[in-house]
Design goal:
- This protein is an alpha+beta fold.
- It has 2 domains: 2-82; 92-252, Beta Barrel (Thrombin, subunit H), CATH 2.40.10.340.
- It has helices spanning 2-7, 11-83, 247-252, and strands at 92-96, 98-101, 109-112, 125-127, 132-139, 144-148, 155-160, 166-171, 178-184, 194-197, 209-217, 224-231, 241-245.
- The strands form 2 sheets. Strands 1-13-4-5-6-3-2 form a 7-stranded antiparallel β-sheet.
- Strand 5 (132-139) and strand 6 form a beta hairpin.
- The protein is elongated, with a radius of gyration of 38 Å.
């Protein structure tokens, strides 16, 4: 070994042995390499398949939602065309506070802290965060009185958001109840239907929530159904309200 180290007599032999052994080492390691590569490849393909399935599912859901939105838009345009009403824009709104409630249990009226100094006018629409509260019936310099939609003397034209059926909602004298008048027994109105202001009569703007139907009774032989609804607005709460100016009033001023 010393001589070989000094004179390199066995260099050729070692080279030949190395050349012979290298393929054997490669072949010996090949099963492990194949197993490792195959495992990683199978994991990658499995992950890609799962990811692909998930993306396809999400794409299907999104397409379905898009179709729903397109359908709703088309239905909205069709209903507006059939009803002959326009999507009127509200130009001005003013927050008001409720400062008084009528003490007469048979009258549904409130007093707010805005009046003619703020350009409040008779018949002006009053809403809250959930729907129509009523309309202004008396105006002074700094305050106004509002007749709520639940008063027995109040009526408002509405349409069913689901199918566009028109009706008139009147007050019952109870803070949490309204009635639909003279609805034919065969009219398509169901419990849970949302009633929106129709804009007819040009007193209330079109499209504001008015009430939700909670009772539909059909009396055999009676020409009209008995339909009750709950106001969308929180009439029993002393929350802030909004005074709404319509385009018609703004143009007149």
């Amino acid at each position: 070994m010393f001589v070989d180290h000094r004179q390199q007599h066995l260099k050729v032999l070692r080279s030949a042995i190395s050349t012979f052994v290298t393929p054997i080492i490669f072949i010996a390691d090949l099963p492990g390499e194949l197993f490792s590569w195959g495992g990683e490849n199978l994991m990658s393909r499995s992950y890609l398949r799962q990811e692909n399935a998930r993306l396809k599912t999400e794409a299907l859901i999104l397409k379905a939602q898009l179709q729903k939105f397109v359908s709703l838009q088309a239905e909205n345009m069709r209903l507006r065309s059939l009803m002959g009403t326009e999507n009127k824009q509200v130009e001005r709104r003013l927050v008001a506070e409720i400062i008084g409630i009528d003490g007469d249990p048979f009258r549904q009226r409130i007093t707010i802290n805005k009046g003619s100094l703020q350009d409040v006018y008779l018949g002006q629409t009053v809403i809250d965060a959930n729907g129509i509260v009523g309309q202004v019936v008396e105006v002074s310099l700094a305050t106004s009185r509002v007749l709520m939609i639940t008063d027995v003397t109040h009526a408002i034209p509405v349409r069913v958001s689901r199918n566009g059926v028109r009706s008139i909602v009147v007050g019952t004298g109870q803070i949490n109840q309204l009635s639909l008048q003279y609805v034919p027994d065969t009219t398509d109105i169901k419990v849970g239907d949302l009633l929106l202001s129709s804009g007819l009569g040009q007193r209330f703007p079109d499209g504001y929530p008015v009430a939700i139907v909670n009772s539909v009774e059909h009396d055999p032989g009676a020409p009209f159904a008995r339909i009750l609804a709950s106001p969308s607005a929180k009439l029993e709460q002393s929350s802030p309200v909004l005074l709404v100016w319509s385009e018609k009033i703004e143009e007149a001023n």
